Structure formats: C-alpha cells, structure tokens
Amino acid sequence: MMEIKTLSCVVRGPKDVGVMEQSINYDESSKEQTLVKITRGGICGSDLHYYQYGKVGNYEIKHPMILGHEVIGTVVKTNAPDLYVGQKVAINPSKPCLTCKYCLSGDTNQCETMRFFGSAMYNPHVDGGFTQYKVVDNSQCIDYPQDVSDDIMAFAEPLAVTIHAAKQAGDLAGKRVFVSGVGPIGCLAVAAIKASGAKEIVVSDLSRRCLDLALEMGATKALNAKDDFSEYMAHKGEFDVSFEASGHPSSIERCLAVTKARGTIIQIGMGGAIPEFPIMTLIAKEICLKGSFRFIEEFNTSVEWLSSGKVNPLPLLSATFPYTELEKALIIAGDKDNISKVQLSFE
Predict the structure, then answer these.
(1) Helix (H/G/I), strand (E/B), else coil: 169
(2) Cα 69 from chain centroid (whole Å)
(3) % of the chain at pLDDT higher than 90
(4) How far apart are CA 136 and CA 345, in angstroms?
C-alpha cells in the first residue's frame, strides 16, 4: 500500500474553505483503480453553494469535504491495460453501484447509491476532485487526444450534462428551440442543441453578457427576459422544445407559454418549490415536461465532441486561478454579473 500526501481544496461550512494536507492510500497491485494527478478543475454552481451556504439543498457539510467534480488529470500509476503513466484523462465523477435496478437497466444516473464527487449527501461525505492526487476507478478515466488543451477538456462534465438534456428532448433535427437562462449550463445547452441539428435556437436571459455568449455558442436570436414574447406565444406557442436552465418560476412559466401544444419542456435548472405552478397550461396544451439529471454515456460523448472541436467551450472561460487561491476563485466565480466559468489549476 502506497501512502500519498496531497493538498486538497476543502469546505468546512459557510464561507469557510481552505487548502489542507491530507493522506490517501493507493494499492499498487490494484487491477481496478488508478492514481491520477489532477491538473485542472472547473468550479460549478454546487461548489459555490457549499461555499456560500455550507450546503446544497438539504445536504449540509458535517466535516471537511473536498470540493469539485469537473476535473481532468494525468495518470501516475495504473495496472489498467488501456491506460498508461503520463496519459491525460478526463475523469468521470460518477461512481454508480452497478447493482441496483436502475444501474442494471442502464440508467446509472439514477443509481440508488450513487457516489458522486464532492457531495455531502452521505456522511462521511464523498470527496471531490479539487486535490493534487486522487485514486479513481479505471472506468472513470476517459482518454482523449493528448494535444487537446486543459482549458477545453475541463468542460467535459458540464457539457455532458447538457448533451444528456438535449437527448431527453428526442430528435432535435430541424426543430425550433427555446432556451431560458443562459448561464454556463444554458450556453453549453445551446451548443449541444446546435450540434444535435436544431434549425433555430432562441435564448432569453436578463444579462446582456450572457445573451452575447449564447450567440457565440450558437444561438440564432437572443432576447432580454423583459422583452415582449407575444409573437412566440401565438398559436398556443411556437417552439417545438424549450429548455429551462435557470430554475426560476417566471422562467418556467415563460417556457410553458412559448412551447407549442404537444411540445416538450426539458427542465435542467434547479430551483425551489413553485407554489402556483400553472398546471392547467401544462394539461390543456398537453405539454411533456421532463427533468434532466446529470448524464450516463454522454460523458464519453462530451469528451469526443470537445476533442474533435464539435463544441468550443472557450468563450465561457472567464478566469483560471491556482488552486492555492481557492477562496478568491470562489468569490470571483460567484460574480454572475461579470463572470461565466472559473477554473482551478493544480499544476
């Protein structure tokens, strides 16, 4: 057994984060696990919630937990036949049980005992990937062309989320699509929807900066959320599919208004309860409302799309900080008026 010292980015509670030394063990004879040196990580909304509030939903921080699930790295030690020392890999943060009824049917994102990087769902918590060294399952290491930049490949996890969302809508070829809320996930959804063949992608947001980024990512038209949407509400709605990516009640109501009868709404954005949900609109227009959660094989698809240039996420990268400046990076990432995506460098 090999003991490794690693510096980790941990959260201890609201506005209480730091870099601390930890020890991890790696069995050098293991046929199932690989030791990886983390090189880059993207800060996600859940990381911000743990920093700002000490919890995500009802899952509170009980003890120091390593943040981060959008990570890539290089192989340090492995016995896997398809991996080699020095190889750059994208790391899938999902670790499903593979034995529950959902895993056995292929719906691993619905695993009953999923252990996902950087989650306080269990106690002890599941540590994330914002650390110098991490032991992962061989299957979590996804190889890609070694000349692809870290800036790009660190987007593999969030892009996978949006590819999964796009697939939830079925065939998008030739469809008219609306995306409400174009922060980083909304903008990546635009890219995934465009890559899936949609003929028109209209987006809405309150931020001019976000709208401009959405246009860069492939939107055909950008509207301020306060604009007049009456032309898209005619004939019981004009869009075949709407993607709601903000979680705000008014945004969900907008999607219901502009989606055509028997159209589809994909809910990506996470929010609280909606006390006066317009259920009669949903019923009368026979709209299909579907949730979209994480990803399954779309992680591998995301790596392929980023590797080939099918999606270019770089317009969304606002800043990169060394991991030792964790709190500064989190504060900057929380400035939604001016910042899109922030990454941490571990090199």
Answers:
(1) coil
(2) 9
(3) 96
(4) 19
Q: Are 128 and 93 in contact (CB under 8 A)?
A: yes
**197, 177, 158, 210: which is closest to 338 by C-alpha?**
210
Paired tokens of 296? 């399954």
Quickly name the fold that domain 2-155+313-345 has: Quinone Oxidoreductase; Chain A, domain 1 (3.90.180)
Check: pTM over 0.90? Answer yes or no: yes
pLDDT at 104 over 90: yes
Number of Cβ within a 10 Å radius of residue 224:
12
* Strand-strand pairing, 65-66 and 2-13: antiparallel
Superfamily of segment(s) 162-291: NAD(P)-binding Rossmann-like Domain (3.40.50.720)
Spatial contact of 303 and 156, defined as CB atoms under 8 Å apart: yes
Question: Would residue 190 be called left, alpha or beta, if left means φ above 0 and alpha means ψ between -120 and 50 degrees?
Answer: alpha
Say which residues have a Cβ less than 8 Å from residue 183's Cβ, sequence separation at least 6: 205, 210, 245, 246, 336, 340
